[in-house]
# Entry
Amino acid sequence: MIRLAAAADATSRAKLLSRMELVRAKLSFSLLLTACIVLASGPAPAADKVHVEFWTMSLKPKFTPYFRTLVTRYETAHPNVELEWVDVPWDALQTKLTAAIVAGSAPALAQLNVPWAYDYALHGALRSIDDLLGEDRANYTEGAIADLTFKGKIYGFPHYNSVNVMAYNKALFRQAGITQIPVTRDEQLAVAKQIRARTGQYGFSPALGKIAGLFLEEGLPLIENGKAMFNSPAHVAFITKLADAYKAGGLLKDKLFSEDNYPASIDAYKSGRMAMLEAPPSALTRVRDDAKDIYAVTDVAPVPIGGPGIAAGGWLFHFAMPKGAAENVAREAAQFAKFLTNAENQLEFAKLAGAFPTAKKAVADPHFQNLRTDAGAYEKAMAIGAKRMDVVRTLYVAGVPGFERLNKRLQDAVEAAIIGRKDVKTALDEAVAFWNSKLGP
Amino acid sequence: MSTRATDVAAAADRNGRFRSTFRNRASRARSRQARLPWLFLAPALLLLGLFTFWPVLWGGYLAFTEYNFLTPPRWVGLANFEDLLDDPVFFISLKNSLLYLLIVPAIQLGAIVLAVLVNNALPGIKLFRAAFYVPVVTSVSVVGIMWGWMYNEQGLINAVLQWLHVINDPIGWLSDDRLALFSLMLVTLWRGLGWYMVLYLAALQAIPSDLEEAAVLDGASRWQRFWQITIPMIMPTILLCTVLSTLAAMKVLEEVLIMTKGGPVSSTYTGLYYAYDQGIRAFNFPRALAASLVVSVFCLAIAWLNFRFLRPRHR
Amino acid sequence: MALGNGSNARVIEGGLRARANAAPEHRTPSAKRRSMAPRHRLRIALHYAVLLLIGLVCVFPFLWTLSVALGTEGNVFAFPSSLIPHAVSLANFIEVFRVIDLGRYFWNSIWITFWTVVWTILVCALAAYPLARYRFRGRKLVFAVILATLMLPTEVNFLVNFITTTQLRLVNTHLGVILPTVAGAIGIFMMKTAFEEIPQDLLDAARVDGASELHIFFRIMLPLALPQIGALTILTTVTTWNNFLWPSVVLTKSDLMPLAVGILELSGTFGSSTRVIAAGAVLTIAPALIVFFFTQRFFMRGMEGAIK
# Structure
């Protein structure tokens, strides 16, 4: 009896104690939970300001002062906006941005290149900015706007771009008896053969490792209505011409089919083994610094224009707007984006980066257009490049799943065709069949 | 299991009056007791399930899909594996991972030797033990940065070697594609010696001293004692460490990421670094997972081989 | 998936218990019994020489980095002058705080490490308690499952964990960094070992007294397991402080990054200012090293709990 009472007493005491423990445990648990929530959220933004976060691609540390100044200037002029600049290494940007979009913490603006932007837009991750851009659309070059227009809507504020020019060795031209600068791809190939025949040097080194881009430059699409059609007569003719030039020895053999034949081309041109160099103007600084004699006889012309009047070598960077931002944030972000990409700021950036702006006024600036009388090839290249900004386009194959694998087949086929191991039509037919088998109905 | 509930229930039975109430309470208490261990285990099991088991399952599935985070995964069968077969860098990475296994005997031997060297009571021995362990408690990013300086063409290693007239021209430890992988292997070795040394030290100290003394009395030489007593007695540790070391060698990733990013000319790609590269840098997670699946299979195979050949026979 | 047959496991266990019972110094071949013959003295000198050489190999990068961080003059790659710092000052250390937000990285490291330790101990101890002192249906299964995680190829998990963390909206947050690392087989086993040392009668007495399991856990088990909790704390602290891969994958914004990740940003950012980077490196590893030097025995011993 006593034992039972004692047990009951102990029970209730223990129950009380254990309940206290429970309460204490629950309290500390909820404390930990709160800490969790605090940890999960980032630093809290200022209460009444609009927080605009923008991402750039590998621009630190070179452009740190540039952006810091820009941010301060804008924040002073717009006290209701709080800017946050996040610079992400370019090779991780696609992953981190996609993760942020999925996690609902995407930045208001993100610097992207065109293929990535196309992919994001395709999957509905970007917000179209036609309404936010409004009339300021006219401030940008046509080519840039065209690059960023997918299915009739614009998806980014154009920033900087690049373009190819054609540098050529006047001495070799004279030696080969060439009097007219080639203006089309056909003429260029003919010139290449002539150079080889008369001087024994190579003509030029087309980026055959990126044959898809070359097709597009010529206005020859790879896919139509979801089916591969790069074995059409026009395509076959183009590859045949390249094969002929190759057979005649007009094309530089070094790394002709590697994905990046850029260094090899510059080297060949620098050492006088090649007559024409298609590259962005920055390549000419290498010639200027390493091969003064060649530089002295170098002149610059616009790159031969392909079929649809497109200049090659464009690689546009822009600021896109991921979906999901609140309306007021989006509006402020658009304002900032326009500021970021206005003529003065673009010009300054272009000067720092050695790239080309996409704001019409910046392109027309004397910096590009007024040449000193003693301007060397590089300066001429910049001027010519600037003039081309309206027609330069970023060329890539859009929206093909598993593109890498398909492209490899195409490359192998073209390489076999050009070096003469296979008949051109046969090689292209086989590649088309492979593509269509993978692309499905 | 003696619990308060059954005690009370027993007491109730003896006293009749409280029987009904107590029995209900008892059964409720009993079911609460049955649930309790699971409540305790819940957080750990949940986290383990989510972050350790789920990745194996989901990753295994995603390796056969196309997935870009924004749209649901799309089944593509063996396509990712075909891509791997088409990629020469993948084969380089596998080859390098297998090459990396070369450090296993080196690191195990070194660690055993170190353990033997510090398994005594010489004054200051604790300081040495600590010194050997310092690389283990240093963050791999700082290790990478420091060794990057050591391996620099003008860095300390070349300077010492040139001063000793061992070499005339500086060696490109990280810039020569024939050497870079081995340079990284040296760093991994340097990092791991102390860790295994501690394990071997514990094993050595577990050897009963009378065994050793009996052998001394029997006239066995140091060498004989080492091979016939020491090594057999620590065989289980050797097996364990070899397996761990082998798996670690196959999974090398951070050194590559920090010091060479796979270069020069893709010569330092390892299996897991290839997976990292495909995932985080090329944003092709399914292909990364396919590659890591292949690496995992290799790991399992090698661990199995280790067990087969090093398993101590019953004495 | 036993590691070796039973007899070997017992040898290790026996050895470990013996080690725990006896002071380590007294079981080596009795060097003290021999006389200090000259040949013997030579052998000891040689022994020290070898130890010194290997020790040097192990620490030379640290010494060089420290010297470079402390010095403010001279070419960092000059040999051998860079080994001895000239014009010693703390200027580089101050500079590194100015040039990058090292203070922020430091604070992030402390914050992440602190919460990781707290959660790890809580979760592992909670899980270890039933495994150690409860007989319930499925116990063996749970045990096997936890053991299995040691066998899994977990290094590749960071890829899917990145996806999971993204979908849980934890990407680029500190919680996302901490959560996946909290539950680990090693921690659970360490706590289990600790709890198994606590005599069952203590628990039974408490239960008879009417204490709830939670009460027993917080008021009896945890306090009595304090030494092992200490060991787990120290190990987790150092591991988390040094952790690089997962934080670098999960975090995007540099103002959330811990030291281990931030220091790499520094070295990418200012490639030429080696001295400042060196100072940053010293500051990054110093806390872990300090903790290590004061708690060496936990490291020298801590791993063995895991082997068992």
